[in-house]
Structure formats: C-alpha cells, structure tokens
Design brief:
The protein has 75 residues and is mainly alpha-helical. It has helices at residues 8-41, 46-59, 61-72. The radius of gyration is 17 Å and the shape is elongated. It starts with 7 loop residues before the first helix and ends with a helix. This is Seed biotin-containing protein SBP65-like isoform 1.
Length: 75
C-alpha cells in the first residue's frame, strides 16, 4: 500500500499545468513589484493593496496546482 503523501501519478500529471502556472506566477511577480512600489508612493490607495494580494496568490499558483492534482488522483 501507498502512504497518503505518495502519489507519483498525480504529481507527474500536474507538471505541465504547474509549468503553465509558473509562467503566470512570473506575471504575478511583476504585478507584485509594481503594486508594492505604488503602495510605497501612495499608501492610501486600497485598490493597489488588493492587487498586491492577488499577485501573491498568483505567485503561489504552481504549489496550489500540484497539491490539487496530487489530491485528485488516488494512490
């Protein structure tokens, strides 16, 4: 039997999608840097803060994709 964390098929199937989300996360890094600079210039803009938070989620996207795929495929 396989342990709960051992799901190599789910991991292998998630790799192409994780690569695509890695490209999207690079865009998230650019948005995060620009948003961070805008918050330093004008900290009163709440919409920039929301954009920065969404960019951080884009940066974490490859990890979320791999976790989701490994949970969907049974051992």
């Amino acid at each position: 039997m396989c342990s709960e964390d051992c799901r190599p098929l789910g991991f292998l199937l998630s790799l192409p999608f994780a690569l695509l989300s890695l490209i999207i996360s690079i865009l998230g890094v650019v948005v995060w840097i620009v948003g961070l600079l805008l918050t330093l210039i004008c900290p009163c803009c709440l919409c920039v803060t929301v954009i920065v938070e969404m960019a951080l989620e884009l940066i974490k996207a490859p990890i979320h994709v791999i976790k989701w795929f490994t949970q969907q495929i049974p051992c």
